[in-house]
Amino acid sequence: MKMLLVASMLIGMNVNAQSTASGTDATKVVFFEVGGPGLISVNYDMRFGKTNDGFGFRAGFGGWSLKNSKLLLIPLGLNYITGKNGRDYFEVGAGSTIVSNSDKDPGDGPFKNSFGFISLGYRKQPVDGGYFFKAALVPVFGKGFFWPYYAGVGFGYAF
């Protein structure tokens, strides 16, 4: 009887330790975005700390193809998210998008460049993972241009 009591206590402690360990990972999100700094892109976002909010980063891969021109975009940025209910967050971020164009039309040519972006928006991100949504105003700027009313919408999965 004593042995059964000790064994059940040890098993209970082990199960409890495993359930709390899974909640200590940093939140990660994979999402598809239309608009935003990658035009049409797939992105990865992660918090630096082991929480659902705070500082983090994003990296993505996007592109566009028309006739003789192919455009590759790689958005990279830092962001900060904050919220009180563990589900709805305000996001602010900034970064740069690397652009590579392989234009085959006469008179034009391939080029590589970059532009900056700022992100101000809303994200719905469940605490325990699940479907993710974001919408943001994303002003973009570069050499000789500034588009203050550019925006993006993203859908994905948080884990």
UniProtKB/TrEMBL annotation:
<protein>
    <recommendedName>
        <fullName>Outer membrane protein beta-barrel domain-containing protein</fullName>
    </recommendedName>
</protein>
<keyword id="KW-0732">Signal</keyword>
<feature type="signal peptide">
    <location>
        <begin position="1"/>
        <end position="17"/>
    </location>
</feature>
